[in-house]
Amino acid sequence: MSNSNLAIRTVIFSMLGNVVLAAIKFLAGIFGNSYALIADGIESVVDVFASVLVLFGLKYSSRPADENHPYGHGKAEPLVTFLVVVFLVISAGTIAWQAYEHIITPHELPKPFTLIVLAVIIIWKEISFQVVMSRSKKLKSSALKAEAWHHRSDAITSVAAFIGITIAIFGGEGFEVADDYAALFAVVFILFNCYKIFRPALGEVMDENNYEELTEQIRQVSLTVPGVKGTEKCFIRKAGMEYHVDLHALVEGQLTVTESHDISHQLKDKLCDVIPELGNVLIHIEPY
């Protein structure tokens, strides 16, 4: 299975899970008198729309290079990540406003059965986070990383709701708002994760060269190619699930242009063979 197909299947897995959980949270929140659960349901609905955006981004970014996009369409992935962050910020604002409305408005205590619902949700969301995060690391996908953090933020908001409802139930009359304060805590965590998702995607769009481990691997592999005496500049920029490299390679100064050209092709082939996540590799020959 190709990387793009695996990424797409991962997002579909997330999306279907969020649809089911959103319905469960809304029903449990409405019949269990828990706004924290309803707030959790709102976040899950937003996650469904966000997953649709991620799915579109992965499909578009996996398109091959063409005349107008010689480096491929990978930059669509971090751009979609920005839209996902916007969705999360909007959902956080909605949850905060509604929680404030419930804090100043008297309401009934949550029902005990909501704790069972939340316990199941927390376990499922943490499992989903581990699965999607593992695949995001394997595929080097910022969009999948954003998708994974949706699951983790959902798990944490559910933990907050669990704590708030527990306090409200055992505290009794006068502690009803604990449920709503739990929703406000969830908002803080959602916004914190928005930054954690946004910052790497911004670096990807701005072509930040901060891939030290990959740079070192490229230099080590280069030295195994006959005729390459060393490397100088190595610039890396990420686009989707690929890394584009500009590398300066050192060769003997007395070599002919043809010989140097052949070495550069051998070096490019070697790098792409050993490091399959590399996309376009541009080799510049320097005399040693």
UniProtKB/TrEMBL annotation:
One matching Pfam family is ZT_dimer
Membrane-spanning regions, if any? Answer: 12-31, 37-58, 79-100, 112-134, 155-175, 181-198
Which keywords does UniProt give here?
A: Membrane, Transmembrane, Transmembrane helix, Transport
Q: Which GO terms describe its cellular component?
A: membrane
Q: Where in the cell is it found?
A: Membrane
An example of a GO molecular function for this protein is: monoatomic cation transmembrane transporter activity
Classify the source by domain of life.
Bacteria
Residues annotated as domain Cation efflux protein cytoplasmic:
212-288
What are the residue boundaries of the Cation efflux protein transmembrane domain, all occurrences included?
A: 11-202
- Bilayer topology annotation: Multi-pass membrane protein
| Principal localisation | membrane
Q: What family does this chain come from, according to its entry?
A: Belongs to the cation diffusion facilitator (CDF) transporter (TC 2.A.4) family.
- According to UniProt, the name of this protein is Cation diffusion facilitator family transporter
Q: What is the lineage of its organism?
A: Bacteria, Pseudomonadati, Bacteroidota, Cytophagia, Cytophagales
